[in-house]
């Protein structure tokens, strides 16, 4: 269950990062509210997953999902640049996440 909460927490990190971009510096109400609610849910689920998962593993997985998810959301929804170097960086992040999961005893 902790792993499911952690993955969902990471997905909510993507939601709040995307909505923060849409808030235009917290000047737009709806994206600002989505950002705050997304942060609260993301942090709460991260904290719950940390009850059983090691800090280093949980935090690394959470930030990795957020980083790669935000990278993909930026390309897909915002037309941000895609190039081989950025794609390789995302692959390396995902590789690190897999190694963290494999090395975890939980």
Automatic annotation (TrEMBL):
Q: Which organism is it from?
A: Massilia eurypsychrophila
* Predominant location category: membrane
According to its record, how does it sit in the membrane?
Multi-pass membrane protein
UniProt entry tagged with the keyword Acyltransferase: no
UniProt keyword list: Cell membrane, Membrane, Transmembrane, Transmembrane helix, Transport
In alphabetical order, the GO MF annotations are: transmembrane transporter activity
Signal peptide interval: none
Q: Subcellular localization, per the record?
A: Cell membrane
Record keyword Transport present: yes
**InterPro entries according to UniProt:** EmrE-like (IPR037185), Small_drug/metabolite_transptr (IPR000390), Small_multidrug_res (IPR045324)
Domain of life per record: Bacteria
Q: What is this protein called?
A: Guanidinium exporter
Similarity annotation: Belongs to the drug/metabolite transporter (DMT) superfamily. Small multidrug resistance (SMR) (TC 2.A.7.1) family. Gdx/SugE subfamily.
Q: Write down any Gene Ontology CC term.
A: plasma membrane
Swiss-Prot/TrEMBL GO biological process terms: xenobiotic detoxification by transmembrane export across the plasma membrane
Transmembrane intervals: 27-47, 59-78, 84-102
């Amino acid at each position: 269950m902790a792993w499911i909460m952690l993955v969902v927490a990471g997905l909510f990190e993507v939601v709040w990062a995307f909505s923060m971009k849409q808030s235009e510096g917290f000047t737009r109400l709806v994206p600002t509210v989505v950002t705050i609610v997304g942060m609260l849910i993301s942090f709460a689920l991260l904290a719950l997953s940390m009850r059983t998962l090691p800090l280093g593993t949980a935090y690394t997985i959470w930030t990795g999902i957020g980083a790669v998810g935000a990278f993909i959301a930026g390309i897909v929804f915002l037309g941000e640049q895609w190039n081989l170097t950025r794609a390789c960086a995302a692959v390396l992040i995902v590789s690190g996440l897999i190694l963290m999961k494999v090395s975890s005893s939980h």
